[in-house]
Each structure stands twice: as structure tokens, then as C-alpha cells.
Design goal:
Layout (H helix, E strand, L loop, with lengths): L3 H13 L4 H19 L4 E13 L10 E4 L4 E4 L9 E15 L4 E14 L7 E14 L2 E14 L2 E16 L4 E13 L8 E15 L2 E14 L9 E13 L4 E17 L6 E15 L5 E14 L6 E13 L1
Helix pairs in contact: 1-2
């Protein structure tokens, strides 16, 4: 839609920096629509490498106070240092590649792979990496495209597997014209925690999205979704939850080399049972804000300074936290 190169850079960057699952799905819809618009029905591929430096105020997404009351234990306890809010500077390297192979005028094979590694300068125990793989097919008719992909995610902390996610994502994208596009998706996946199998779950999310070029350099997009994460462990309904979320974003292009963007995300999670330690039913209300610039100093290069803030209000005190991140990323696209 409109300034597709600028929009692509912003969306891919958000995804490579660990966008939440539903945000990544919304991003995929927009990227795939841009692919169709740019490919002119020719097989194509593209890739990027990126380096990021910044500071994260809360690496563990932990509470600020180490002393918390735990009703089931009859009094306060002191949390381990790694479970409490702590900040650090960080460096991150990322790379990705995506492609589309045209089979005929309607069918194509699609796929992508991305990897990022983050090193925290003063808290190496939180160093992490994320690998994302997607492969599948797409069917296009007129201005609409339907796709089905197999997805795999491998997320590691301090070199050890923290979580894997495997599943299917079905998507529909409708490009109304050169300024507007809409879409919907359904995701079904299994979450596996090798070191904490009690958290294993089946996740299902359905959502929709819309993007529009508004004129005078403005681009706006948004999405809403609902879903559930159903626990696999018996008698642990407190680990499963229902969720609903909203994501909004805008971008203003000042020139061919400079644009500003902002985003707002909100997610509500209601858990299914009473927490066995805190003796309350967990409810989370998470709000995320983002603000930044994209600058193109030379062809194929993009520099993105940005600030993000996350506030999660939770009825379980150890899940109540805030987190601010400031960073500058430099990306080369090929």
C-alpha cells in the first residue's frame, strides 16, 4: 500500500525483534500483500541483515519489588534476583530471507526464515535467540489471496530451549485497491516447554486486519483478535487462558528517506483457575506503546531509532510489571 518499501522495512523490523504471535500474524498479512503487489506475478526472493543496540529496563519482565506476599506460604518471600526487574544494555544481530515461487497464474509456493540473537551486556543469563521458519502455498484470484503455511518457532534463553511452537496458519488477504487492504487469519499451534512441560498448551487465535494509505504520506493499519491457550496438564486450569487483543499503528512519510511511526497494542488475558500459590484467579491487562523513525541514508540501508514501553497489570503480583526499551537498528536489504 502506497510507500511499500518503507512499510515493508518497518513491518519486517517489528517481526524480527520478537513481535508477539498475533502481531507477527498481522505483519505477515501486510508483507504478503506487498509481495503480491511488487512481484508482478514473477518468482522472487529478498533478504536482510540487521544489527541493533539498545537498553532494556526489565529483561525478565519481573516485578520491581523482590518481597512479595505468597498466601499459600503464610507470608512474604524474597524473589530470586533473576525474577526481579533488572535492566541492561544489549546488542542484537538478525537476518532473514523470504521468497515466492510462481507455479502458475494463481498458485505459488511461499516461505521465509529468520533468526535473531540478543546479547545482554550485564545479564548474560537472559541472552536469547529466536528462529522462525514458514513454508506453504498461496492461491490468488483477482485481488484476493489465500495461503496456508506450516510454522515453526524455536526460542532459547542462555543457550537452552525455552519454548517451541509448531502449527498451521491460514490467511486471507483482499487488496481492494492500491490504497486499501483487509485480511483475516486463523492460527492453530502447539506450545512446548521442554524444561517445564506443565506449561505445554494448544493455542488457537483468529483475527482480522486492515491497512490504508491515507494521503499526504500517512499510512494506518490495525488488527483485532480473539483466542485461547488451553493447558495440556491435568488439573492446572490456572495455566490456560482466553485472550482478546487490539493492535493499531500509523506511519507518516516526510520524504523518500524519512518517516515516523507509532503503535498501540492491548491484550486482555483471563486465566481459567485459581493460582495455587497466590490463591486468586489471574487476570492480565497488557498495554504496549511504540514510537520511532525510519531513515534511509543510502540505497538498501535503513536506520531505525525507536522507543517501546510495555505495562502489564496483573492480579498475580509476580506478573505485574513494566518494561521500557530504547534502541537503534541498522538494516541492509538485498
Amino acid at each position: 500500500v502506497g510507500d511499500s518499501q518503507s512499510a515493508r522495512a518497518l513491518l519486517e523490523q517489528a517481526k524480527s525483534q520478537g513481535a508477539p504471535a498475533e502481531a507477527a500474524l498481522t505483519i505477515d498479512q501486510f508483507l504478503r500483500a506487498i509481495d503480491v503487489a511488487e512481484s508482478l506475478m514473477q518468482s522472487s526472493w529478498r533478504g536482510y541483515v540487521e544489527a541493533t543496540f539498545g537498553h532494556d529496563s526489565n529483561l525478565s519482565s519481573g516485578p520491581a519489588n523482590a518481597n512479595v506476599a505468597v498466601p499459600v506460604l503464610g507470608g512474604p518471600v524474597t524473589l530470586a534476583a533473576n525474577a526481579v526487574k533488572q535492566g541492561s544494555g544489549f546488542g542484537q544481530a538478525a537476518a532473514g530471507i523470504s521468497g515466492r515461487y510462481i507455479i502458475d497464474s494463481r498458485w505459488s509456493a511461499i516461505g521465509s526464515a529468520s533468526y535473531n540473537y540478543r546479547s545482554n551486556f550485564s545479564a548474560s543469563q537472559f541472552n536469547n535467540s529466536q528462529l522462525n521458519l514458514e513454508v506453504g502455498g498461496a492461491y490468488r484470484v483477482d485481488r484476493q489471496e489465500y495461503s496456508l503455511v506450516v510454522v515453526h518457532e524455536d526460542y532459547r534463553v542462555d543457550g537452552l530451549i525455552n519454548r517451541t511452537q509448531n502449527g498451521l496458519v491460514g490467511e486471507w488477504v483482499y487488496r481492494m485497491d492500491n490504497q486499501r487492504e483487509a485480511g483475516a487469519y486463523l492460527q492453530v499451534s502447539d506450545l512446548r516447554y521442554p524444561n517445564l512441560p506443565v506449561r505445554d498448551a494448544r493455542r488457537m487465535v483468529a483475527g482480522g486486519s486492515y491497512a490504508q494509505q491515507l494521503g499526504d504520506g500517512w499510512l494506518a493499519w490495525g488488527g483485532a483478535y480473539v483466542g485461547s491457550e488451553n493447558e495440556k496438564a491435568a488439573n492446572r486450569s490456572d495455566l490456560g487462558h482466553n485472550l482478546i487483543g487490539l493492535r493499531l499503528g500509523t506511519q507518516k512519510a516526510f520524504s523518500t528517506s524519512m518517516a515516523m511511526f507509532a503503535s498501540f497494542n492491548y491484550e486482555r488475558r483471563n486465566y481459567g483457575g485459581q493460582d495455587p500459590f497466590f490463591l486468586v484467579q489471574r487476570q492480565d491487562r497488557q498495554t504496549s506503546l511504540g514510537l520511532g523513525l525510519t531513515w534511509v541514508p543510502a540505497k538498501a540501508w535503513r536506520v531505525t531509532p525507536q522507543l517501546s514501553y510495555v505495562r502489564n497489570k496483573s492480579s498475580v503480583v509476580i506478573n505485574d510489571y513494566d518494561r521500557a526499551t530504547v534502541s537503534v537498528a541498522a538494516r541492509y536489504e538485498f
